[in-house]
C-alpha cells in the first residue's frame, strides 16, 4: 500500500481508533504520527516466530552446506554438471556444528532460532542487542552476550540478522561492518532488506571475503539484485519467512482481537490493544 506517512495519515478521519496490521513489520508506517492522531498501531507480534526462525535455520544450513549451488546443478539435468558439483561441494562445505552463530537482535524470533540452531545443529550462540537478555534466558539458550556489534561480527562464523528497520538500523551492516567479519564467514538476513547494504554485500561476496549469503528480504524489494541472483553461493527466497498458512491465520486473528480490544460498540475507545507498537508515543499524547 506504500508508505503511511504524515501526508497520508492526515487524510484519515478523526473516528479512526486503531491501525491493526496483520503482519509483523512496521517500517512502512510512521507509528509516531499515528499516535499523534490518537491512533493505536498494532502488529501480529509472535504470529510468525516459528515460521521465520525455521526459515533462518534453513538458510544457515544452506550457507554452510551450499545447498543452492547443489540445487541449481541438479536442475540442469546434466550428468557432467551433476558429477562436478557433487565432487566440488564436498571440498567447500562444512557442518554448522561447533561454529559460532552471531545473532544481531535478540527478540522472540531470534531466540527461537538460537534454541533450534543450538540444539539441532550444535552451534555456539553469541548475540548483540541494545538491551541485554535476562540471565536466565542466556543460561537457557547458552547464549553469550556482546556489548557491541563490532565484537560480535569479529568472532561469528555466520551472522543472522533480526532487527527492525528504522533510522538506526538502515544500512547497519555496511562495508565497514562486513569488513570486520571473518574471512570466509557467512551472513543470513530474514529481517529487512535495507538493514544489509546490498552493494557492500556484493563486493564482499565477489572478493571472497564472505563465502556465502542467504536473503529472504531484499534491498529494493520486490526487485532482487540480478548480480546476487547470478551467484551460486547465495540463497534467495521471496520474503516468505513467515509465509505459512497457519501464520497468516494467526496474523489475521490477532488483528481482529486488537480491534475488538480497542474499539467499543459505539466506536469509542474501549481499552488497550494486545500488541501495541506505538504505546510510548500514544501515551505521551494522552498526557499532553
TrEMBL record:
Q: Which SUPFAM superfamilies match?
A: Formate/glycerate dehydrogenase catalytic domain-like (SSF52283), NAD(P)-binding Rossmann-fold domains (SSF51735)
Q: Could you tell me the superkingdom of the organism this chain comes from? A: Eukaryota
Task: Please give the GO cellular component terms listed in this UniProt entry.
Answer: cytosol
Molecular function terms from GO: glyoxylate reductase (NADPH) activity; hydroxypyruvate reductase [NAD(P)H] activity; NAD binding
Q: Tell me the ranges covered by the D-isomer specific 2-hydroxyacid dehydrogenase NAD-binding domain, including all copies.
A: 58-241
Keyword Repeat among record annotations: no
Q: Is Heme tagged as a keyword?
A: no
Alphabetically list the UniProt keywords.
Oxidoreductase
Q: What is this protein's name? A: D-isomer specific 2-hydroxyacid dehydrogenase NAD-binding domain-containing protein
- State the species of origin: Penicillium olsonii
